[in-house]
Design brief:
The protein has helices at about 5-25, 30-45, 55-65, 70-120, 125-130, 130-145, 150-165, 175-185, 190-205, 215-230. Helices cover about 75% and strands about 0% of the residues. It is rod-shaped and about 130 Å long. It has about 230 residues and is mainly α.
Length: about 230
């Protein structure tokens, strides 16, 4: 070492010795019990404790629940358990999604088929094309067979056909009994009689009103009166 190096080393030693003496002069050595207490306070402080995530707490809970060791073996078992749980949940979610898609597709196909069926023209019924005499003959035939309710149902079509011949109403297969009542001329005094007849038809043909031979004869007389009054 040269002269300059010795001089620098001596100066550094002097500074260290002087600082150490100054520190010992101004600060007393702490008491060991106080140091230990300070360390315990630091370790008990939550700011300096080990922070665990939700996954860590979940793994610890599963380890305690399954009575598994906290070493790598237990953690591996918990990892496998979680992996299988996630796999099963994913498969169930996929099956649920497929089920919703299939159900939606079936509903769409059902609605489409319903629209096609409703849009396709249906075959005309007997009362859609039959004349008044033909309807009267069919009504009598149904009565002879004991089908009084069906016979009463056809009486409305027969009455409309009879009134159509008189120029009062116009028959259409899509019209309801209520529409025929509203189309009946308001100034015509027979409108009330026709309305009462239509309500009686609805009650017997589509409701719970009794329909036997007596009711059939009564409705047949009312139909004849409606048609006869309309043609006068």
């Amino acid at each position: 070492m040269g002269t300059g190096g010795w001089i620098r080393a001596g100066a550094a030693a002097f500074v260290v010795a002087w600082c150490g003496g100054w520190a010992r002069a101004d600060y007393a050595r702490p008491d060991p019990p106080a140091v230990r207490q300070a360390i315990r306070d630091i370790l008990d402080d939550s700011r300096f404790q080990e922070h665990t995530t939700f996954a860590d707490r979940l793994i610890e809970w599963l380890l305690s629940l399954l009575d598994l060791p906290g070493d790598g073996t237990g953690v591996a078992w918990v990892g496998k358990l979680l992996m299988w749980a996630l796999l099963v949940a994913g498969v169930l979610a996929l099956l649920l999604l497929v089920w919703y898609l299939v159900r939606g597709l079936l509903e769409m196909l059902t609605k489409r088929s319903s629209l096609v069926e409703s849009a396709s023209p249906r075959a005309p019924r007997f009362e859609d094309t039959a004349s008044y005499p033909q309807l009267r003959e069919r009504i009598a035939q149904l009565a002879r067979q004991g089908e009084y309710r069906e016979a009463v149902r056809l009486m409305m079509a027969a009455a409309v056909r009879g009134l159509e011949a008189a120029g009062i109403l116009r028959f259409h297969p899509g019209k309801t009994n209520g529409e025929y009542v509203r189309e009946f001329p308001a100034q015509d005094q027979r409108r009330g009689e026709f309305r009462a007849f239509a309500l009686a038809i609805d009650g017997v043909a589509y409701g719970d009103d009794a329909c036997g031979p007596g009711e059939y004869e009564g409705m047949l007389n009312r139909m004849q009166q409606v048609v006869d009054h309309g043609t006068r």
